Amino acid sequence: MLQIEDVSLNLNGGPILKGVNLRISRGEIHSILGINGTGKSTLAYLLMGLEGYHPTSGRIIFEGEDITDLPIWERARRGITMAWQEPARFEGLTVQEYLLLSRRNGEGSLSPATCLERVGLNPSLYLSRPVDQALSGGERKRVELASVLAMRPKLAILDEPDSGIDAPSLDQIIEVIRTLAEERSSVILITHQEQVTRIADRASCLCSGMIIRTGNAEEMARFFSIHCRTCSHINEPEGELIENI
Amino acid sequence: MKTFDYSKEFEAIAQAYAQSGGSPAALLDRKFASLVVSGNKVLASNSIPGVRIESEGAQTGVRAKVIVEPRTQVAYPVHLCFGVIPEEGLQEISSEFEIGEGAKVNFLAHCSFPHALEVRHLMEAKVHIGRGAELTYSETHFHGKEGGIVVIPKTEVRVEAGGVFNNQFKLVSGTVGKLDLELTAELEEKAVCDLETKVYGKREDKIRVKESVYLNGPWSRGLVKSRIVVSERAESEVLGEIIGNGAHTRGHVDCLEIIQGNEAKAKAVPLLQVVDPTAKLTHEAAIGSVDKKQVQTLMARGLTEGEAVETVVKGLLK
Ligand SMILES: Nc1ncnc2c1ncn2[C@@H]1O[C@H](COP(=O)(O)OP(=O)(O)OP(=O)(O)O)[C@@H](O)[C@H]1O
Ligand SMILES: [Mg+2]
Questions:
Q1: Whether B300 and A81 lie within 8 Å, measured CB to CB
Q2: Into how many domains does chain B fold?
Q3: Topology of A1-79+190-245 in CATH?
């Protein structure tokens, strides 16, 4: 369903992503692992089509169509959406209004209340609250996830949906991601936590803008904890670690 | 001389009042204190126990005095309705608000100039809030499409110890024309002042907002918040000023001006003056186009760029 073909990206003259190749099938949860600053968020922005993140080379194919040059909203209407690592705040926009904005060519989106319940927020307390600074970091992250649910996306790019979420609630967030996949959404799951990676079908390890290895989630979680956590070459992968997919 | 048809005029102003978001029924309901002014005529004035409204027409406007008796907790908002219905006219309002010690009252003011081509609305208000009293004043303007209007409100507020002044000024529908708003508030010990101004400028609009809060008494607090959007060839200038004269005073200026298009202009001048070293004053001022992250977030939900910008702007001005 999604193919990233030899994608590179330079920002301000420096290479941030280097020849990224990835294939993700329908209903697959694909985890992206990597230490701080390896390019995970950059990859998410590039897939969503944010301004300034057009690939320097390479292509993005979604459902057989080359979407490399499509603007954000066109990708969204084809079913791609993203939850920001640090979501924006909006003055004067209620959670209800925000969730109602999620739409994809008018195709059956989920009601705001249902989405909130799924992410563990009580609709009667949250629907009328503004999506502004008054929401805590964790609340805002949940609302972000709820707005992704509301889209019923074909591809959900989740940039660290687990960061800022308290440990007791982590299972709930994991459950939400599972449900997305059960409803045939593909999920790109960016995370640092092995516990979260384990719910993925497959995972890739990103190091210094390169995918150095892709495999099943369990194995990749182990790989990440052994190699990346103790990595001596900060953001500079050694040649021998790079493995073809 | 042509006689003045009060009922017809009332109908016209009630209609304009409804356009600006007011509910005309409230102007007739005796349980609300109210004042209705069209041009230089007082069309209706209703006092209630604890709230006395005195008014008289003059050559080019109206003089009004609103007195809220000490310790009165006014259950329903006081409705004020000012308007100029014809295309041309001068309306000078000179008003005094006397909020007695410990009283609590809410004002809903609507100003409507639906057909203005050459209208001037000048307002001079003196507000005195007694010890521990609380005044909330919300003013909403409704201007016609043409923008042929000059609005110059000048307000002086004195808040005695422990008093609270909440002020909201909103001019987001229709064309502003020329707005030159000035408000000065002087606060005594532990008094609080909270100002919020929202204006949407279009076409050739000229917007100037100057709000100054003097934190004179110890522990007094002030917030000066403005949200201004300018599009087309509109221009805005916002001066938010807080002076911390008293000990342990706290003040914050929060000014956001959004520019849409290449021709609109905006200027922000936050001014903080710490006189007493224990005063703490802060400000944030941002001028620019709509925040890119906000817009892209909404686009990632399927909104076009135009729709996303509109959604963000609508929220800011709500
Ligand atoms: N506009 C830019 N210009 C130059 N370098 C940039 C730019 N944006 C990001 N970078 C750099 O690109 C690298 C990747 O950043 P990115 O935000 O994608 O990392 P990440 O893997 O998401 O990290 P984290 O785990 O901290 O979220 C970082 O080294 C960052 O400093
Ligand atoms: Mg990141």
A1: yes
A2: 1
A3: Rossmann fold (3.40.50)
